[in-house]
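User: Second chain of the day. Same drill as before.
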Amino acid sequence: MFIRQLQLRDFRSWPECTIALEPGVTVFVGRNGYGKTNIIEAIGYTAHLGSHRVSQDAPLVRMGAEAARVSVTAVNEGRELTTHLLIKPQGSNLAQINRTRLKSPRELLGVVRTVLFSPEDLALVRGEPAERRRYIDDLLIAQKPRYAGVKADYEKVLRQRNSLLKTASSSLRRGYGHDDGALATLDVWDGQLAHFGGQLLAGRLELCEQLNPLVHEAYAQIAPESRPASIAYNSTVDMHESTTAELLEAAMLANLGAVRSKEIERGLSLIGPHRDDLDVLLGSYPAKGFASHGETWSMALALRLASFQLLRQMGTDPVLILDDVFAELDAKRREKLVAVAKDAEQVLITAAVDSDLPENLQSTVGKKFQVSVEQQETGRISLLEELP
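Assistant: Same format as last time:
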């Protein structure tokens, strides 16, 4: 898979931008804060319907604009599709494929697949569980886009259930026959949460089973002198080796019943995929808290390399994006990343200066762009120039 063209309008610092791309290595060079990461962020948004930098859409829209537009033309095994996304600061976003308006932006998922390496990847090892849940879910949805709907349904039910636990705690404490129907409503939400939670758990568990040997292999190649790496899914649901969505649904429903009094007391849902984590291990110890800085970087790279290999097994390479990452790596880890980059169908790289790029990668660069800025009355905007 490769991206043939990217068009931006009012996306962050770019009032207008049209970039013709091709297979191979493309580099965007520019000082930090000039807007080069905004380019690859737009591509990543198309692939995942979310930014790797912010959780809300409002910062993506250029100040003073009503909406941002991102159009990506992708070629996959000779088939060309153009996606269009209208991103709004408030309200629902709109999406098209070619000239067909879509009912939901989620229908875009799978048209563009990307794997991003960035300095923020250290959070996959050192950060909070939410970072690792997002990593799992982004990869799961890239592999099987239908899980985007499952996750959205789960999160909607979770919000409704948490609202009930917070606002009807006194009624819930009084028990059946003495309340205003709040417990019966909670029963309904329990069933819905377990239904969608069981599906999401099944997908995550299957993904982790596929991913674990790839993480082990990638880490061994990057850091052969270190302890063996592995991952394991750590769930709040007592699963008793259940693997199917139906069995996981039943297990989750039983667990919800067991902790109901605690949830009513705290006004919070304590069981489910939203509370789970991915254990990232070196030997028998968690990498978080026990890994050195070098081991942490190696593990973060191994997680991303495993993602790339897993998506590659679907038949086409995802677009490989390297965002200011070479400046953070030592020679050994650079070498490993370069080996993958040289083999990928399309690689998009950002760097502050040319010297950040490894010498053995510079010779493979097909296109290079310079990103600069200009101060205008309406604010600072980014500019793009293709270099010879």
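The first helix runs from residue 36 to 48.

User: Great, on to the next one.
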